[in-house]
Amino acid sequence: IDNIPIKLNAAAILREGALYQRKMEQELKRIENLLQGAGDPSEFLEWQKQMRGKDLEEQLAEIECRRLQGKLSHEEAVLAHQNVIQENKKKADLMREEKAELMHQYAEKRLQEQKEVRELVKQVVEGHKNAKQAKIKLQKYKQQIVQEVCEENRELLRQALEEEEEKLRKRYELIQQIRAIESLPSLRHKFVDLTETGGHGLICEMSIVELRERLALLREAQKAAEEEKRDQIIHEKQAKEQLLLDKLDQISLFRAELGRAAALKQEEKKRKSQSGERPVKDERVLNLQKKIIEKAMERKKQAGLL
Fold first, then answer.
1. In Å, what is the CA distance from 131 to each residue of 24, 119, 122, 127, 219?
2. What is the pLDDT of residues 137-189, one digit of tens each?
3. Tell me, what DSSP letter sits at residue 39?
4. Which of 215, 217, 219 is nearest to 227 (CA)?
5. Dihedral through CA 24, CA 30, CA 35, CA 38, nearest 10?
6. Contact call for residues 78 and 298 (beta carbons, < 8 A)
7. In terms of pTM, does the model score above 0.85?
8. Which of 64, 67, 194, 199 has the fewest CB atoms inside 10 Å of its own CB, making it the most exposed?
């Protein structure tokens, strides 16, 4: 489908216009070089294309080698896992024999420990009498600590009450001072002359009337500046819109020419690629495939033994 309407913003229009402008300047420069006797770089571009194709084939072969190496590593890991299982089976048999011997030794050791426990129980019964006297001393020591803590708490409470009384006294004095200040008479009505200055002796001193006149003049000047700036913005906006329209016309022309050139190039490429050759596989890929088959057969054989 041709001529699909696409809505572009100002930045996209200017960016695409600059791109086509650079392409046009490059094409004009190439034509000028050809007119001056310079060679056509098409042969170099074809050679460069062939070299890129070879590089691409090498990269694809390298990717395939990595994939096959990963598959080979997987086969080797599975085979190693099977070998570990077989080795663990042998170790398990050996451990069962050792476990039976250890159980026999453990039974003998338990009999000896039961004898030692009976002896220890006798010693604990004898030491229970001494423990009772120590418990009475500990209880007396705890009662002494509780009495000391109660005395300390009473002293802290007394200090807190004294501090709170001092705060209340200061607050009462402050309230009395505020009430005394509020009871003083104040002048509520005062005549103000707007034409008089403050009398501070300054050169730039003005009355309120002069300040109002100066403010009105400043507002008029600000309004005139805003009107002038608004007119300038409108002119700039109109110029920008005209520039965007010119760029859109230029872009439409370039797109049409590029579409025709791309169609011709596609037809030429299709005509050249009628007879394609199948690429030969890399030798490293073939060797890795052979190794993978061998490891898979060895793994299946090991699985049968297990």
1. 107, 19, 15, 7, 99
2. 777 877 778 777 777 777 888 888 888 888 888 888 888 888 888 777 665 55
3. P
4. 219
5. 180
6. no
7. no
8. 199
